[in-house]
Specification:
Blueprint: H1 3-24, H2 28-39, H3 48-61
Pfam families: Sel_put
InterPro entries: Sel_put
Protein name: YbdD/YjiX family protein
């Protein structure tokens, strides 16, 4: 395998992993931080622990459509 092929393969694996993380919801905190920096500069964002607690509480209050 050439270094170019190996580099391309690594890039593809990284991209696929990010898609999986997005589908699983693992990128939600990162997305929140990006939104917070853009729309609420100068305000302290929630810690990751606070974010996930609020996220789960919100889902329990408003379950919407989910499989389980």
């Amino acid at each position: 395998m050439t270094s170019t092929t190996l580099s391309r393969l690594r890039g593809s694996v990284r991209a696929a992993w990010q898609i999986v993380r997005g589908v699983a919801g693992e990128t939600a905190y990162e997305t929140y931080l990006e939104h917070h920096r853009t729309h609420h500069p100068g305000e302290e964002p929630m810690s990751e622990r606070e974010f996930w607690k609020a996220h789960i509480d919100r889902q329990d209050t408003n379950p919407g459509s989910r499989c389980c």
